[in-house]
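Hey L., structure's done. Input below.
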Amino acid sequence: MTSSKDKQLMGTEPSGAIQAAHACAASRSAIKTFWNANQGDRTALSLALDDCLDVDSSLFGDTKLNAAIEHISQCSACLEWRKSELEPERYEWIRMSQAYCCTEMFHAVQGADAGLAIRFGLAGPESLPCWWVEPSKTVIRHCPWCGSSLTQMHPDLTAATRSA
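Output:
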């Protein structure tokens, strides 16, 4: 049975919801302040929010920021905020990369600085779907990095690369 105190902490009672909203707002404000002040080096904060770095008193030297990191890394509402407002480009990049067999293939197709450029298109009068290596247009059937078959394509990938 859930106690009244548990309901407050989970935000299922009106006063709990207000407390949760306040904790989210305070945490987001602290993160946004640090984010804007450290535009050159946001990597450590991003890794801490991803729970890849242990947040202790020595990491950022700010207990308010450390508490905000802990809150945001565990709060589903704050994760949505992070995806839409704090790092939208990063999360869009992650979403797009999931359509590919491996990160190397993703960078070869989408990355401007890829060492090996791979493209998708429709070839011949039959408009057969195929992958090729630029600039030679050598057709490939398997990923050069992981060996996955390129015959099964993600629908988003097909649509995105047809226009390329």
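The longest strand covers residues 118-123. Strands lie at 118-123, 128-133, 138-140.

-- N.
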